[in-house]
Amino acid sequence: MSNGSDPESVLDALRQAEDAFASRSRGQPTREGGIVSGGGWKTQLTKACKLREVADIIEEQNGHYTAVIELSFGAIERSVEAYAVAMTDDEVSDFRDHEYSYERAHQIGLFEEETATDMRDLYSENRTESYYGGGQPTDHQATAMTALARAVHKFAVNQIREGGICICESD
Hints:
The chain is an all-alpha fold. The protein has a single domain (34-159), classed as Up-down Bundle (Four Helix Bundle (Hemerythrin (Met), subunit A)), CATH 1.20.120. The protein has 6 helices and no strands. The chain has helices at residues 8-21, 41-61, 65-87, 98-107, 113-132, 139-159. Helix 2 runs antiparallel to helix 6. The chain is globular and about 55 Å long. The mean pLDDT is 89.
């Protein structure tokens, strides 16, 4: 418990992070390439592409299974969100709960109820365990999650009426 003696290095880093997110940094920031700005479905879709890309890179380098699993779940959620925002009156701000993406996937007809429920359960039971639990993620789990992220992303992209936004190299 803190008694006012938090390390100055932590406090300085915290202030710098707060400043960076509040756009109070010095000079012109370098923005990540490939992500469509604006905050709508195109932003979510291109973020999903980036998450998939880095998951694939990390998986190829081997051994960082926790990161691959986390990135894959993130890519799945961003893909579903992109579809929901593109095809309904949903807004990105509606998706503040991770499990909501999976529930919404069925509600809007992207996936059948059983599939959406299975994906939500996969998230709630296994992502939580791999992240917070005492188990060690495996190569099989990481490979399965990248395959699932790739399949969900490709399917969502193909269902969105407006094409040409996905920046993934290959599927």
